[in-house]
UniProtKB/TrEMBL annotation:
Amino acids binding pyruvate: 58, 224
Protein's name in the database: Dihydrodipicolinate synthase
Pfam families: DHDPS
Gene3D superfamilies xref list: Aldolase class I
Length: 326
């Protein structure tokens, strides 16, 4: 069943990608704080992770305007260049409910300096989202832009729309569709797809780091994980241990990362609180309201905040012990 399609002209590099949170000014309208974002992007690039994802779920993409999405890509690219990493991979969320909206977002992202586009399936009218509609949607967007497309499978955020491995395999054959992020948590999709395709043909990524090792064991390419906002060096270290064939150490760290990541699975408010509490000072972003969700969503309540700190505290020492890479 191994595919003989050509490798993609621009495959997505394997590794650990951080879906970056959005940072806001402490004003009534919560405008994007681009200065704070630049500091935070630079901090993540120094940490050793392999790429950044903008305007994804963790970034509250549905609460961002098209102009804000585009400017965040521009700021990210500047942070990468200024950090001495001009070719650092930048993935931009381009998800829209219509084909034309997604194409416009892809064009914006490409012009701002993005390398790849992350694209959810349409989902507003779930009953109308047939397999034919999904295939047509992804093909039309991929045909219309030079930006290589990464499929984003996240049924919980898409009215239950689940992209099965057969559908993903069909989409993988498009020359401008280069990979998939599996936030569905289905390890079976990893092994089925990697049996058919090499990473150069179609990269397969876990949607969180609590199953990074199972994904890598199934020949997956890495993960896109919200906890990388909080402890980027720890997740990068986990990936490095696997690649260095230090399996026992990797398994031990996998468990610790998984325990901490359960806080991120509680929602955007706990994730942003954890980022501000643990990573904000290192990044030079100390305004706590910068880490609040955008209204109408509320910040972490004090009781939940204490729980988040306790759940994640065990990774602090390791994170602080690991060096910057640039």
């Amino acid at each position: 069943m191994t595919s003989n399609i050509a490798a993609k002209s621009k495959p997505i590099p394997p590794g650990i990608y951080c879906p970056v949170i959005s940072l806001y000014k402490p004003t009534p309208r919560q405008e994007i704080d681009y200065d704070a974002s630049y500091k935070f992007f630079s901090h993540l690039i120094r940490s050793g992770i392999d790429g950044l994802v903008l305007a994804g779920t963790t970034a509250e993409a549905v609460l961002l305007s098209a102009e804000e999405r585009k400017e965040l890509v521009t700021v990210t690219r500047k942070a990468a260049v200024d950090s001495g990493r001009p070719h650092f991979p930048v993935v931009a969320g381009i998800s829209g409910q219509s084909t034309v909206e997604s194409i416009r977002l892809a064009e914006d992202a490409l012009s701002a300096g993005a390398d790849f586009g992350l694209l959810l399936p349409p989902s507003y009218w779930a009953k109308a989202v047939t397999k034919e509609a999904i295939l047509g949607f992804y093909h039309d967007v991929a045909d219309a832009t030079a930006l290589p497309i990464v499929i984003y499978s996240f049924p919980a955020m898409c009215n239950g729309i689940d992209l099965n491995s057969d559908t993903l395999s069909e989409l993988a054959q498009h020359p401008n569709i280069v990979g998939v992020k599996l936030t569905c948590g289905n390890a079976g999709k990893v092994t089925r797809l990697t049996q058919e395709y090499t990473h150069g043909q179609f990269g397969v990524f876990a949607g969180s780091s609590d199953w990074l090792l199972p994904c890598l064991a199934g020949n997956g390419g890495g993960c896109v994980t919200g906890i990388a906002n909080v402890f980027p060096k720890c997740v990068a270290r986990l990936y490095a241990l696997w690649n260095e064939d230090k399996i026992k150490e990797a398994k031990e760290l996998q468990g610790l990362v998984a325990q901490a990541e359960k806080a991120c699975k509680e929602g955007i408010a706990p994730t942003k609180y954890a980022t501000g509490h643990f990573a904000g000072p290192s990044a030079g972003v100390t305004e706590l309201k910068a880490f609040w969700p955008r209204k109408p969503y509320l910040p972490c309540d004090p009781q939940k905040a204490v729980w988040v700190e306790n759940v994640m505290q065990h990774l602090v020492k390791l994170e602080q012990s690991l060096p910057d890479v640039v």
